[in-house]
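Hi L., both proteins are below.
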Amino acid sequence: MVDNVEIDGVQYAPVNVEGESLRIVIVDNRGLTFVGRCEDPAECDGSGMITIRNARCIIQWGTKEHLAELAASGPKTETRLGLARDVKVAVDGIVLVYECDASVWKNE
């Protein structure tokens, strides 16, 4: 286990990521689409919310076929991603989840 670290006078604690995988999560009927590390929504802790860590909103897919192409092959040159932030999402608002190949999503 990693201990707390201090950077520029700010203390940071390790985050427990056990059970988290890189996933593309599509939220609600507005089609917000995020890629980030999160637990399986089916195994949510009962709070009704999950946190997507370092979530990046997929602003433009940039794919030739479908969103599943991003899950398997990673971002394309035409893919546009928002800034990384932790996002809390209501589990009952999740429409679809893709497991991602983390090796093709560098720095995610």
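That was the first. Here is the second:
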Amino acid sequence: MKFNKWTMGLAAVGVVSLASAARADEKLSPVQTALSNTTLSGYVDTSAMWQIGQQNGGNIPKYTPGGVASDGFNLNSIDLALDKPLDESPWAAGYHAELMFGPDAVPGSVTTTQISSGRGRSTTVTSANSSTAIRQAYLTLRTPVGNSGIDWKVGVFDSILGYESTSDGLNPNYTRSYGYMLEPTTLTGVLGTYKVNDSIAFSAGVADTANGLDNRAQWETQKAYLGSIALTAPDSWGWAKGATLNAGVINGDSGSAVNGGGSGTTSWYAGVVVPTPLTALKMGASFDYLELHNGSSNIGNSSDDSSYDVALYGNYQYNDKLSFNLRGEYLNDGAAAVYPFVGTHRYYGPHEPNSAEEVTATVSYQLWANVLSRVEFRWDHVSHGDSFDATSSTNSRADRDNAFLLALNLIYQF
């Protein structure tokens, strides 16, 4: 191999080696070229939680995706993702592969054991089964149709519905909303997105079921069909520029979703984020509506049942390090999708659904680089239905209709 005189001169004084110069001159293989555009990201998510008062069993607020975080210290999840984003070419291709490890990896993975402590007393110990989950894994493909082309996801991807994400760090608050509990979270199928312009985008797709990775529908009528629209306010809107409105629907078989059996479900969602004349303040709102068909609810009657949730959000970014987030919501849980009835329902008949309210206040401050650190206080109140900490209708008490939580959440993001 020939080297120019400058390379030979640098090699003579020991600045470079001829071997390294030879490697630098070689062309990258196709595999090396593909890997050179791949990025690694992820996070380590931990928390410390104090449920103020005593929780002995029965209904408790579902604070996290797995519903398993409780008093004490928690490893929520470890997340690792590889990405090769689409470039600007008309037939671009890429992928996203993301794994999640820990208690939040598989929602609902909880083991409860009664341990005798003597003198007729027992203690309920709730522990999470450590799990590994395919958080997302899909190909990204572009077909040159129209002005911008259609971008496709093929594989396992997040639901098109929702104000909040399964990833803690993407949410304004640490604990989840009731609306999140009503929504499908993961879909396996194909999703196409077409961007009409900077203000309008449409998405539509087909998935195996309304929620899940391994659920498989046998017939086309059992597939889940989904669609959404995203609107963004243009710069000409002044202080309201950048405001977003997202709306969507998923209709199909519920598979083994937490909120139903094998019958059909329809999930509706609408969410908005609006800047205000005060630059540091943004407001948001969301509406979730879940309908369970053919008696697939936890109530056990033969009629269709539904649950809906209304939530309001406020974010105040005081400076680059300090922010305040507030959330308030009302849940009407007619399908018992969030709070299944415990024992004998203390209000008889199908027209006495659980309903609840919650208010969450979160303060975030960046003490360390790359670390999201936040303190959160949450109050939940049950208006009807079984109270918190109730194992049957006989011990449903008014003083247990409230639950209080103080939490610290630390996430290292890379």
